[in-house]
Amino acid sequence: MSQFLKIVQLTSSILLIIIVLLQGKNAGFANLFGAGSSNVFATKRGAEKILFYATIVLAIIFAGSVFAKIFVK
Questions:
Q1: pLDDT tens-place string over residues 5-16
Q2: Short-list 7, 25, 23, 26, CA closest to 55
Q3: What pLDDT score does 30 carry?
Q4: Following DSSP, what letter does each residue of 27-45 receive, concatenated?
C-alpha cells in the first residue's frame, strides 16, 4: 500500500506541475505587479476551464495521498 501511495504521489505531483505551468498564458514579469492586461476577472472557457478543474482535482489527489501516507506506514 505504501508503494502505491508513493506512485500516486509522484504521478500527481508531476502532472500538477505540468498543468500549473500550462495555465500561465500571461505570466510575464509585468503581470506580477499588476501592469499587465486588465482582463483579470474574465470567465474561463474551453481548455482553460478544463485545466483549472484538473488542477483542483490533482491538488486534492496529491493532498489526499500525502495524508494517507502519513497514516499508512
A1: 999 999 999 999
A2: 23
A3: 46
A4: --HHHHTT-S-S-TTPPP-
For 28, residues 6+ apart whose C-beta sits below 8 A from its C-beta are 36
Q: Which of 70, 52, 58 has the alpha carbon at shortest distance from 8?
A: 58
Q: What does the alpha-carbon distance between residue 62 and residue 42 come to, in Å, rounded to a whole number?
A: 28
Burial (CB count <10 Å: 0-12, 13-18, 19+), residue 68: middle
Distance (Å) of CA 2 to CA 6, 52, 56, 59: 6, 29, 24, 19
- Residue 65: all three cell numbers together: 495521498
